[in-house]
Amino acid sequence: MSKYNIHADFRKYEKIQLPLSPWVLPLLNGVLSSGFNMVKPAEGVKVTKQTIPGYQGGQIEVSIFEPVDIQNDAPCLVYLHGGAFVLKASPYLKTLVCTYALETPCKVVYVDYRLAPKHAFPVGLEDCYAAFKWVHHNAKELGIDKNKIAIGGDSAGGNLAAAVNLIAMDRNTPTACFQMLIYPVTDARQQTESIKNFIDTPLWNSKQTAKMWKLYLSDGMPDKKEYVSPVEAASLDKMPATYIEVAEFDCLRDEGINFADALLQSGIQVELNKTIGTIHGFEIAESSDLVQQIIAKRIDILKKAFHSSEK
User: How far apart are CA 88 and CA 109, in angstroms?
Assistant: First the structure.
């Protein structure tokens, strides 16, 4: 019998947990990268890759996913993948990104930022900020409406998305028109009830979270702690409207809820979706009706966000 009352569609993943040992990461990232590349883009989606400047002279690759018939001045979602700041994207994410592009419709700029532990904080975050600025600067050439550039991410990617907006606020550069944060990492303090209780949940748990922070923050906590722990920001009153989604049986659940509350207290428009019976990374069950219902809600949210940003 399952320890947690997770939805039947996710029970086959109950015994799976991602290893985060530094010596395993290169091998695991090789497998993930190969799997991601093997997934063919959905029919009707064109993919263009570009190499752009990252942090401190580094180079990063971005992939632009767009419907083949999309009009000029299209809305855009800059997407930052999860993976504990140390892992490449899971193969299912390519299918998900294509779905966002086709059904919103919009262009999706997927950012292949550099990973810890080789590139610990702030490299990955600064790469994401550089990519976001690049999209804004090149919006006309990319066929993107600069007033309709949203940012989103899952797990560690959700952390990076929120932090990109915080950096943009501090540096007086454009923020996103909207942010979509999927079971995001938002609190480095690791003190919530869900962190304390979910030490052995499927796919991700609080023990792995502790390892993640050690790998990402190998040089220590920065002075601007909100760049790694967005919920600790002194001010959130200039953040964009936000959709936050949390999974019921996820150690990150409560910090996502707390971040939504903090944004609301700052007067930011927030929609919080507490999904039921779910686990961290539940989209891996791609054929699940529940997963498809949740993804459909995200797409509806994106459509409304881009419509409300019309000027």
Answer: 16
Residues 81, 119, 155, 309: which is the catalytic one? 155
Instruction: Say what the pTM is.
Output: 0.97
Q: Does domain 8-308 have CATH number 3.40.50.1000?
A: no
223 is catalytic: no
- Interaxial angle between packed helices 156-170 and 123-137, expressed in degrees from 0 to 180 and rounded to the nearest 10: 60
CA-CA-CA-CA torsion sign (29, 9, 16, 5): positive
Distance between CA 60 and CA 73 in Å, rounded?
25
Domain boundaries, the chain: 8-308
Question: Hey, is 219 helix, strand or coil?
Answer: coil
- Both tokens assigned to 51: 């190499």
pLDDT tens for residues 207-252?
A: 999 999 999 999 999 999 999 999 999 999 999 999 999 999 999 9
Put the strands of the sheet holding 45-53 in their side by side order.
45-53, 59-67, 107-112, 74-80, 144-154, 178-182, 241-249, 270-279
Radius of gyration of the chain (CA): 18
> Facing residues of 95 across strands?
none
Q: Looking at 104-153, list the stretches that DSSP marks H as alpha helix, in order from N- to C-terminal side.
A: 123-137, 139-142
- 2 catalytic? Reply is no
57 touches 69 (CB < 8 A): no
Known catalytic residue: 155?
A: yes
Tell how far CA 303 is from the center of its chain: 18
List the one residue out of 75, 69, 70, 66 whose CA is nearest residue 48. Answer: 66
Chain centroid offset of residue 228 CA? 14
Q: Which of 112, 127, 145, 250 is catalytic?
A: 250
- AA letter at 68: V
* Neighbouring residues of 34: CB distance < 8 A, sequence distance ≥ 6: none
Q: Which of 7, 81, 136, 280 is catalytic?
A: 280
